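It is time I had a proper look at our fold encoding. Can you supply me with one protein entry, sequence and fold together? It will help me judge whether the discrete encoding reads sensibly. Leave the record below and I will have a look:
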Amino acid sequence: MTIKPWKSRYELAKTLIDERLLQNTNVEEIESTLKKMNYFQLINGLENDLLSQKVPKRFRTETFDDFKRLYKFNKQLESAIFILIEDFEDQLKTSLAHNFSANHCRTLNDTMQYTNKNNYYNIKNDYQYPFTRYQYKYTYENFDKFELFKPNFIDKLIRNNDFIDPKFYQDPNYVQPPGVTPYHKNNQVAVPLWVTVQTLDFGTLIKMTHYLKPADMTGILSDFNFKPSSRFAFLSALDVIKELRNKCTHGFLIERFSTPEYIKLNRNLVTKLSLDPYHKGGNSVFPSRLKLFDSLKVLGMFVDLRPLGKIFKSLIYQNNKNFSKNSYDLNSRILQDIGAPSYKALKAACVDSVSNRW
């Protein structure tokens, strides 16, 4: 591999047409499209699906419309997945706020107990906690630095969120108990967790679930039909969903998605969902690296994936209708990219997600 020098849109178009023999297009069309779509994403990201010959790179019957169709599919799928993850995120926020508040924030004076570290579990005291050399390393080692425990947390919360009006959350009967974070401008202000939780990002929500005491976590697990003994399988599922969410928000070609090597997987989760990680794991090595198909099976434990099934079905149909078959099957290549053994398995995963609970 070499570092490729910069090329103008015109030069890129000429390379595709004259050197790689892309069919049924012209320089003007490609130049116009590259003003709106990134070449790295549109061409480099999708060419492995469409190249008839990879060394040197050559097309035969493939067209620029084939690239645009696959790119559009990726963007549609990315948007649909993100909407489903947002639905799950709302469910998680609701469950977390309800169950923690039920156990710690029932009375007026206990409103801010969610900022009291004594109501949480310092996982660094658990020497058998999983993945402390991998994705949980920072969370494991930095309990005292958790955002909700910081002395200025409520000050920043109110300052950065216009919808939280301190006058609305002021009560003359509120007496701040020891250990909670105060609002320094007015010690009669207390913001309930079910309000605060709406401002927390997904990473902070995950940290909070790690730090919950077993009694608090049990209620959340129950809301999602997990048993108390499945806490670490649940947390492992959150890791996968977080990675998927991050890729959706950064314009990544979702067809190429895989969880990173350092995100290790709970073996019970792998077994339960019949996942097929690239690294299978062993006595001293944890499984890791899920492609999109398996990652969607994880997401499907929490949300209905049938809207995704419609997008996949549309792509399969469009490719069958519009793609001039050469020496390979385009749909088979896409299924291989996402890690699906067959279109039948992909359809089943989208439909069965409704009942595929822990």
